[in-house]
Predict the 3D structure of the following.
Amino acid sequence: MNLPPKVTERAFARIAEIAEMTGTQKALRVAVEGGGCSGFQYDIKLDDPASDDLVIEGAGQKVLVDQVSLPFLSNAVIDFTDELIGARFVVENPNASSSCGCGTSFSI
């Protein structure tokens, strides 16, 4: 069953921190594009909502997923991690059959 992606409290908290630091209230867009070392790659950036986006709201923040990317992100979890290698948004995607070491590219 295709369910929309989930967004963790940690990810929403980080979006709020970014809004506070930049003084702008943008949403976090998570998109899937062709390319990368495994066939598809995630494109994660701050953006404004478009009319056909899926908007996931929490803690006063928004995450956007466009209609083309939505099937690729079904049942995925969008999280924020702060590790030795760096702080970043990550996508835990059950649809990906393999991924690469950089964590931004995957195949289905």
